[in-house]
């Protein structure tokens, strides 16, 4: 049986990373290594550090990554792309040119008799008012149209600069470590949500940039996927078992 893969948070093209071209190549090599084994690939948000499509213009770069996504979909592999808080602004290019399926909200989906709740994770239980306001602006259609009235030269500069600042304001550019079940807002959100949705077996998120595999009950399991900046982690579902792994160059193919 072919496998289903889950990964997130590559932040490709980030101006805060010196190794961004090497990072993209590493991600492409991973996708190439799984293309014969994959039934589907779920990219759970923030694959780009900033992505905004204009009517006749798309962002510079990412040719290796976009080409590999197109190759996967041409070969019959389903590729699902979840918008994160850094790559909301997609308006058809990824679907039409690369053949991916774009999700703008969390989804609940049955995969081989197991029920999955999949989401990037931004805005789910986060108590930060400033972040909520900013997220509301980013998702507002009027504000999105305003951004696209700005010439791409300046619109892309603004977006990349904002994304770089967002990364560099954290110590070493990394997220804080796991804070425990009572403080992690995605854990709190999941516990509340599962109380009214007992049919869900697995919750999988990105966004937080930590690797977490947590049993919330005898049935319910929650995963946070880490990232493809420092950790190169992902999850695999083989139709029966779900497990976390990380991609290490030169080792046996995953």
How would you describe what is shown here?
There is one protein chain. 32% of the residues lie in helices and 21% in strands. It has helices at residues 20-34, 63-74, 93-98, 129-139, 141-149, 152-168, 185-195; strands at 3-7, 38-43, 78-82, 101-103, 107-111, 114-119, 202-205, 211-215, 221-225, 233-237, 242-246. Strands 4-3-2-1-10-11 form a 6-stranded mixed β-sheet, covered by helices on one side. Strands 5-6-7-9-8 form a 5-stranded mixed β-sheet, with helices on one face. A hairpin with a 4-residue loop joins strand 10 (233-237) and strand 11 (242-246). Helix 1 (20-34) packs parallel to helix 2.
Major pleated sheet = 6 strands, mixed
Q: Rounded to an integer, what's the Rg over CA atoms?
A: 18 Å
The quaternary state of the protein chains shown equals single chain
**Overall average pLDDT:** 87
Work out the number of β strands: 11
Shape: globular
Strand order of the largest sheet: 4-3-2-1-10-11
Binned strand content: 15-25%
Helix content: 25-40%
Number of helices: 7
Order of helices and strands: EHEHEHEEEHHHHEEEEE
Set out the fold topology.
Layout: E1 3-7, H1 20-34, E2 38-43, H2 63-74, E3 78-82, H3 93-98, E4 101-103, E5 107-111, E6 114-119, H4 129-139, H5 141-149, H6 152-168, H7 185-195, E7 202-205, E8 211-215, E9 221-225, E10 233-237, E11 242-246
Parallel strand pairs: 1-2, 2-3, 3-4, 6-7, 7-9
Antiparallel strand pairs: 1-10, 5-6, 8-9, 10-11
């Amino acid at each position: 049986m072919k496998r289903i893969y889950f990964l997130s948070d590559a932040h490709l093209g980030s101006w805060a990373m010196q190794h961004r071209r090497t990072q993209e190549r590493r991600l492409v090599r991973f996708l190439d290594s799984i293309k014969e084994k994959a039934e589907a690939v779920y990219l759970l948000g923030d694959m780009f550090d900033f992505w905004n499509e204009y009517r006749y213009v798309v962002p510079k770069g990412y040719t290796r990554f976009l080409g590999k996504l197109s190759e996967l979909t041409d070969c019959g592999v389903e590729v699902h792309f979840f918008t994160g808080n850094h790559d909301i602004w997609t308006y058809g290019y990824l679907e039409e040119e690369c053949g991916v399926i774009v999700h703008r909200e969390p989804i609940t989906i049955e995969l081989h008799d197991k029920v999955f709740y999949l989401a990037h994770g931004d805005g789910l239980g986060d108590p930060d008012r400033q972040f909520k306001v900013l997220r509301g602006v980013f998702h507002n259609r009027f504000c999105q149209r305003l951004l696209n009235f700005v010439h791409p030269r300046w619109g892309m500069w603004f977006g990349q600069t904002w994304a770089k600042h967002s990364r560099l304001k954290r110590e070493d550019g990394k997220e804080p470590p796991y804070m425990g079940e009572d403080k992690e807002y995605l854990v709190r959100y999941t516990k509340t949500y599962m109380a009214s949705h007992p049919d869900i077996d697995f919750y999988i998120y990105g966004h937080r940039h930590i690797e977490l595999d947590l049993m919330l009950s005898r049935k319910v399991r929650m995963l946070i996927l880490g990232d493809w900046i420092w950790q190169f982690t992902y999850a695999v579902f083989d139709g029966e078992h779900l497990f976390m792994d990380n991609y290490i160059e030169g080792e046996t193919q995953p």
